[in-house]
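Inputs:
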Amino acid sequence: MPPTATASVRVSHLAKNYGPVEAVRDVSFELFPGEIFGLLGQNGAGKTTTIECLLGLRSPDVGTITIQEIDIQADPARARQRVGAQLQSAALQDKITPQEALQLFASFYPKPADTDSLLTQFGLTDKARAPFDSLSGGQKQRLFLALALINDPEILILDEPTAGLDPQARRELHRIIAGLKSAGRTVLLCTHNLEEASTLCNRIGILHQGRIIASATPAELIAKAHAHPWISFRTARPLDSARLAVLPNVTSHKPEGNGWQVETTEINRTISSLARILEADKNEMLDLQIHQPTLEDVFIELTGQAWSEDKPEETS
Amino acid sequence: MSAGKLLSGLAQHFLLSLKLNFRSTQALVYGYFVPIFFLVAFGSVFRGEIPPLLHQMGQLLTISILGGACFGLPTALVAERERGVWRRYRLLPVPTGSLIASTLLVRLIIVGSAAAIQILLARLVYQTPLPGHSGQIFLAFIFVSFAFLGLGLLVAALANDVPAVQALGQCLFLPMIMIGGVGVPLAVLPDWAQRVAGFMPGRYAVDLLQRCFTDPNGLQGATFSMIALVVIGTAAGGIGLKLFRWESGRRVNRSTFAWMGIALLAWVAVGLAATATGRLDPVQPDAVAYESITEEQIDQITYEGLPGDNELVTRLSPPFKPDKTPERARAFAHQLKTWSLGYAEDPGQAVRNLLSVAAIADIGADLREAEIGRVVFDELRARYEHDQLCHILAWVILRPSDGQVITRVPELRLRRNLSESMVRERSVLYAKKYLGRLLRKLPD
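Outputs:
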């Protein structure tokens, strides 16, 4: 982001406790116009608490939050008018229709978005008069996104928008979220989905045990990590471990099933050397896969814990 | 946000909530089918009374309002909260209480329409007279609903989930039904239960609503019941609003129970005030005062000096010839047959009420005054046996200050508000004319 840009959202030294439990500690980040900032963390990391403080649903114990220079605690109603939000574990009445829901929420804002346009934009025109309980999971999430845009906000806060969706619905929602960014909106995306974060977000803050332990673009985070790419392969005849140890740029190797896993600092050189060895031994490569470091590797390296793709965190 | 925008949003929320209620089978069953079921149940039990259900309408309506407010409201609120609907609402730039107020108003309409359906069905199916004080029944409904909706809001704040609403709701519902004067009439409850009922809002709700059907004075003299309901409703509703939870997950804690205790203190305060003012003295079945009148007393009544039937006061038409009753007399007779105050539980009071009608028409110089005098006489003879009617008329003559008296009857198009003493005086004159005719001491 340009250093001169004014932050749309500024969170400074946020802390929130629930009794003896420290849900969020000293969390600070900024969102700049037109970017998607991902808050990445596992269950209980403090994502939802951070969002709820940001929306004025909970009062922070320490810290300040401003939305377009409006202090959320001093004037929550005015600040909320600038923000659209899709909350995890929010729902609508079973028998309300998308059209009715949009019209209801629109009626509370001075300059609401056009409800028919939102229905069209989110592919809900055919379901405009269908009861909420007859919508699919993807349609419901699209409706919640439409509701988040009902006040035509510049800032959007999305809490696990793709949780529980099938891959197709998830891809559809990714397309929509990317479209929001293209339309110039600022998005705070809370997710525990690594692929979603690295695909959609300009910048990511990794939240772990209530703290932001790293914050940068996905590429920078991966680049800063010490994890190396690796290859895994199988050969027609067994390959001696000593032959792999002498391959250039290899930092480690270990057996994997009927083949080997080799970590390297330079994939191209390692693969071409491996090909030469196999040719000299009159051996044959059966298959080969290349793995680049991911955010999961970054997370493991930063926390020492494995990443688990479980269900989204419950509201604290 | 401007006030206009807020009101427009709340109006939209109100209308949509009402619409959604009618889309829910469960809401329709609990909101309308159950009250109708209670009506049929009461109608089956009390079908022998004449007219049926008139003296149970206060109880019946109280049960409906209590059910709608203490079960319907919190069930809907908690179900929506558990689903996350209120969590989403909270993001709206509107004051906290305004959406709750809109929800309460929706429930008021639902409960009110269920009560209106009960009144109309009772009229159509059982010929139960409509409330004698049609304007006051609305006022009574507002007071009763205020108290019970306040309790419903408190239940919603305390209950963690829908099953808990049922449990808490029953804690309110059952005691009021069994010993609170709502399901079982106060007069048949033991003394201790009647005193306990004085600490519960149900007793005061039944009192207000029943007065509108059978008390000649309507809500006059019901100030204590109104205050009791306002105190209980304000305490419960205020604390319910304070403890209102927007989302599931947050559970009640010790301070919540302390607040609940404060809400119950309002019940105690009302009960103690009722005790201190003698309102909880046991209610006995009404004494039949006219039975104390002896035959000797009746014989001693004289009829000299009564105005003639065509003079200025106490005019009385000659008997209508068969099939030649004037149309307006026939129409009035029809209205009188369904006039609820003419069916007061105590026959003595019922006759006094009917005499008041003749007296009011006479004092007010109604064009139909003579015909009304005759219609009332015919109606009295049709409703009561000769001896009983003679005793009651003699009681009115000999104890003109006993019982209560009606001073205006707008529902019968007798709108002038007259002084009580004049109506009592004129009632005695009509009673003499009627008694003299019944005993053949006066020509008819």
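Remarks. Chain B has 17 helices and no strands. Residues 291-438 of chain B form one domain.
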